[in-house]
Amino acid sequence: MTTPLTISVAGMTCEGCVRALTRVLEASPAIKQATVTLEPPQARILFQAAPLPQAEINALIRQAGFEPA
Ligand SMILES: [Cu+2]
Questions:
Q1: Region 11-20 average pLDDT
Q2: HMA domain: from which residue to which, for each copy (predicted)?
Q3: Model's pTM, two decimal places?
Q4: Range of the domain at 49
Q5: CA 6 / ligand 1 centre spacing (Å)
């Protein structure tokens, strides 16, 4: 079990955004669980084993339509 990573996310406006980002993050085999919240706008990510590089996490967030902040 690795330490969870919390990252701020810009551009989320509703629960649909929260679900969309959660879905994209949890589709990554490297991510065990993603807990996304609007208030505050962030994602708390638990990894399966080794954490993903920051650049890959940022790419997933952008793929979901949001911006890592
Ligand atoms: Cu939304």
A1: 98
A2: 3-69
A3: 0.94
A4: 5-63
A5: 20
Is there a domain that residue 23 lies in? Answer: yes
Is residue 69 in some structural domain?
no
Distance (Å, rounded) from C-alpha 49 to C-alpha 37? 23
Q: Evaluate whether residue 68 is within a structural domain.
A: no
**Residue 13 Cα to ligand 1 middle (Å):** 5
How many structural domains are present in the chain? 1
CA of 61 to the centre of ligand 1 (A): 14
Cβ atoms of residues 68 and 7 within 8 Å: yes
Residue 56: give its domain's CATH number.
3.30.70.100
Distance 36 CA to ligand 1 centre (A): 12
Whole-number Å distance, alpha carbon 1 to ligand 1 midpoint, is: 31
Distance 50 CA to ligand 1 centre (A): 30
pLDDT tens digits, 38-54: 999 999 999 999 999 99
